[in-house]
Design goal:
There is one protein chain. By secondary structure, the chain is of the alpha+beta class. The chain folds into two domains: 99 residues, no CATH class; 89 residues, no CATH class. The chain is 35% helix and 19% strand. The protein has six helices and eight strands; from the N terminus they run H-H-E-E-E-E-E-H-E-E-E-H-H-H. The chain has a four-stranded antiparallel β-sheet with strand order 1-8-3-4. Strand 6 and strand 7 form a beta hairpin. Helix 1 crosses helix 5, helix 2 crosses helix 5 and helix 5 packs antiparallel against helix 6. The termini are far apart.
Amino acid sequence: MSLDTYANLRTAIANFLNRSDLTAVIPDFIALAEAQAMRRLTKRLSEEGKQLPRSAMTRDAGFPIDAETIDVPADFLGPVMLSIDSEAVQLTYLSPEAFGREKARRGAAASSDVPAFYTVIGSTFQFCPVPDAAYVGTLVYWAKVPALSDSNASNWVLANHPDVYLYGALVQSAPYLMDDARVSTWGGLFTAALEDMLNSDPMPVDGTNLRADDGLIFKARSASLFHINTGA
C-alpha cells in the first residue's frame, strides 16, 4: 500500500502492528509523531542555526506592513526574506538586541519612513523605521508542517518522507501497547528518517562571493602592520 494519504498511513500503521483494534488511537500516534518532528525542525532552525529543506519554505506576496508591530503568520517558524517591492527595498533582519540598538541610535523622535530593518520577538514582527504608510511586503519564511487530518490528506513530509510518519507513529505506539522492546527499534528508524529529511533538498548555492573591504586586506607574509581603527 502506498503511504500517500492520511487514510493509507493509518492503515499501514495498523498493518505494521498487526492490530485491527487501534482505529481510535492511531490518529493520536500520528499527532504525537508530528509534534516530535516539529520540535526537531524548530531545534535545527533556532538552536543549530541550520536551514530546513526547501519544501518547508513558503511565500506570502501580500504581507501587510502598516504598523510598527505585525503578527507573524500562524504557521511561521522563521524568516528567510522580507521585501517591499514597490519601494525596491529588501529589509535587513536584525537580532532583537541589534534591533534595540538601532532603535536607540535613531532616538525616540525618529521620523517614520519606509522600513529598512525588522526583527521577530515572540509571535510579532517589529519594524524600523516605523512605516510611514501602508506597504505590502513579500515575505518568504520557513513554515510549520500542516497537520494531517481527514480534511488535509497529505503534506510535504508525507509526500516525500513517509517513513518519518510511519516510524514516528510506531514509536508512539510502543508505550501504549506496553511493548518496550520495540521502542529502540522504531526509535532508531524514526531518528534516521528525520535526519534524512532534514538533510534532503538543500538550498542551492546562489554564487554570491564573500567580499572584504580593501582596507582590511593584507598580505599573509607581509611584515607591515595595519591598524584597523586608524587605518595607519
